[in-house]
Design a protein that fits this description.
The structure is a homodimer. Chain A folds into two domains: about 130 residues, Jelly Rolls (Sandwich); about 80 residues, Winged helix-like DNA-binding domain superfamily/Winged helix DNA-binding domain (Arc Repressor Mutant, subunit A, Orthogonal Bundle). Chain A is built from nine helices and eleven strands. At the A-B interface, strand 5 and helix 5 of A face strand 5 and helix 5 of B. The structure holds a DNA duplex. Chains A, B: One of its GO terms (cellular component) is cytosol.
Chain lengths: ~240, ~240
DNA sequence: CGTTACATTGAACATATTCAAAACGAGTGG
DNA sequence: CCACTCGTTTTGAATATGTTCAATGTAACG
């Protein structure tokens, strides 16, 4: 077992609490900084391929990614079906409140740091603090909105547009969290991307080479460099 | 202008307040039955093709469908892109809380009855009533969960599976709201279905005839009769 | 009836998958 | 430092799936 912290520091990007999607005003460590045990699980390290949650587990806490990358998936006929990638600042679990059971499994794609947000504590805060309540409604509403947009993407877009959108969405998610860079390191394999996008790895590969031929980006294994951002956006949006 | 109420009664299905997705315990008319003006807009009639909300309008109320059918859509390069159909018991607007602006337009597919749930009043109730608060969280969480499932459908399913799933989801939505019937009247055109599913009307048509050949259902214009429900489910799920 | 809008069918074409083979790259041992 | 291996990625050719365009059918409504 290697030194997890070192690996994370050297290779991964972490989000500051100010740019976290949760925001510092709802962050458990900041709000409950007198209750030591809740702070303990902040920036908790998990290693690559570690399963953090198994589908069906009781939901007693949400997870917020501080550094690294996670994926969520359900298991269909023995095969894992990825339904989301989560990057620094993202929160996992909001879709499971209604059943109080995690409806998908969560696995670390790379060594990562995650914060935990206890469900009961959050609900107590929601009752006490209007701002926390509104923030949570806003977070959930944003999620619904984002997922509806994603439905549109998947229902309407062809393979090229899906791959283009995927790369661009990674870029913009990092950018929104304060990490503006045209160099992206994919934390997931081509297989994971294909699985998530509903395409084959061969198609992903072919489209990436096509994008290189068009001078939109360069793809060298897991390292992607965007050469022409407007062209990437057009590639992802235009077409039909 | 025809008699709207008559048309609705004769052709459409309405949901009782008990089976509404909102539930009677959070229903504005029931909770605020002393404030007359909030009750006024309950079961308000809208006629076919009427635009109830324009994209970008301030969100001051949610809409709950009591009878009929509505669609939501965004406008992309002048063309309407449908992103949801709403049936009795459904609620519209939860994805717009974060911006307090409706992020899509809402139009009636048929003459319909809709209830209105005022945003401010709901938020006041949320502060006063834990049950209302939890119901709202649950509703939103369910929405996120359902949309995530829909993303999986669209990202993974081919044309046959999409159409199968579409028919089946109509059946089960009606069934969950207490209207169990193998006869479904589509309130939307083939064009709307195609637009929503990201397919062409020709493909929809071909798949419907294929399903008839397989004795899964009969499709006579807008009237669909499911002949073999397990086969329909298999048609929508199996394949890949 | 005849018009109009909507739905179905057919044939040619485009897009993505499948299967097979080759190339690459990180890690291991000589 | 080079050769070897395993797993991943890329490339190629054949096939399947869905679209496009054009023609035909059908149902609702004046």
């Amino acid at each position: 077992m290697q030194n997890i912290y070192k690996t994370i520091r050297s290779k991964s990007y972490s989000v500051s609490c100010e740019l976290c999607r949760i925001g510092p005003s709802i962050c458990i460590p900041k709000l409950l900084n007198n209750a030591l045990d809740t702070v303990v699980n902040c920036k908790h390290a998990v290693s690559k391929d570690e399963i953090i949650v198994n589908e069906g587990t009781a939901l007693d806490r949400f997870y917020i990614i501080n550094a690294g990358a996670l994926k969520t998936y359900i298991t269909v006929e023995g095969k894992e079906q990825i339904n989301g990638f989560y990057l620094p600042g993202d929160i996992i679990g909001l879709d499971s409140i209604h059943s109080l059971k995690y409806n998908c499994s969560v696995k670390a794609l790379t060594n990562s740091l995650i914060c935990e947000l206890k469900y009961e504590e959050l609900m107590t805060l929601v009752s006490q603090n209007t701002h926390v309540r509104d923030t949570l409604f806003k977070l959930m509403s944003e999620d619904i909105h984002d997922f509806k947009k994603l439905i549109l993407c998947f229902s309407q877009k062809n393979a090229e547009e899906r791959v283009g959108m995927f790369i661009y969405s990674l870029y913009s998610k990092y950018a929104r969290r304060g990490h503006v860079s045209l160099n992206i390191k994919l934390s997931m394999s081509r297989n994971d991307i294909a699985n998530y996008l509903g395409l084959t790895i061969e198609t992903i590969s072919r489209i990436l080479t096509r994008m290189q031929d068009l001078n939109i980006l360069t793809a060298r294994g897991k390292y992607i460099t965007i050469k022409n951002l407007p062209a990437l956006i057009k590639f992802a949006e235009y077409h039909k």
